[in-house]
Amino acid sequence: MPHRTIATPLAPAAIGPYSQAIRAGDTTWCSGQIALDPASGALVGVGDVAAQTRQVMSNLLAVVTAAGHTVTDIVRCTIFLADLNDFSVVNEIYAAALGGHRPARATVEVRRLPRDVRVEIDAVAVDAVAVDAVAVATG
């Protein structure tokens, strides 16, 4: 299946050998986003998980939009936390950023994240039209 690389200046450029996202057909796989300012590349909210989470969600939604999706096309996210004690703060900001949408999700605590951030989030998005077509076909 043909695929294309997604890149937007509204999210930080990749800091390694990867893309912000890859779109193949109706599906986009978004790389994990950390709290980098897209314009400067500087870390936002050093030590402040709330500020970092707001920036992460802004970056992630910018990539989702650049791929031609809306927030309701997000079907799966993974949240990586440096400290699971930050879960409630991250969860509140994550939920607000997604509005009433509730994709499948996993949250894991990891030993360390790039640039020693407190949170990283990735996502998979699928065009709603494609999801609706499958539901009709199997319904």
Q: Would you identify the CATH architecture? A: 2-Layer Sandwich
Strand order of the largest sheet: 1-2-3-6-4-5
| Whole-number mean pLDDT | 94
Parts with pLDDT < 50 across at least 5 consecutive residues? none
Backbone CA Rg: 15 Å
Kindly name the structural category: alpha+beta
Number of helices: 3
Share of β-strand residues: 25-35%
Number of strands: 6
Q: Mind summarizing the main beta sheet?
A: 6 strands, mixed
| CATH class call | Alpha Beta
Q: What is the CATH homology-level superfamily? A: RutC-like
Annotated CATH topology = 60s Ribosomal Protein L30, Chain: A
In whole angstroms, how far apart are the ends?
A: 26 Å
The number of distinct structural domains comes to 1
Tell me what you see in this structure.
The chain is α+β, with helices and mostly antiparallel strands and 139 residues long. It has a single domain (3-138), classed as 60s Ribosomal Protein L30, Chain: A, CATH 3.30.1330. 29% of the residues lie in helices and 27% in strands. It is built from three helices and six strands. It has helices spanning 49-66, 87-98, 128-138, and strands spanning 3-6, 21-24, 27-33, 74-81, 104-109, 119-126. A six-stranded mixed beta sheet has the order 1-2-3-6-4-5. The two termini are 26 Å apart. The mean pLDDT is 94.
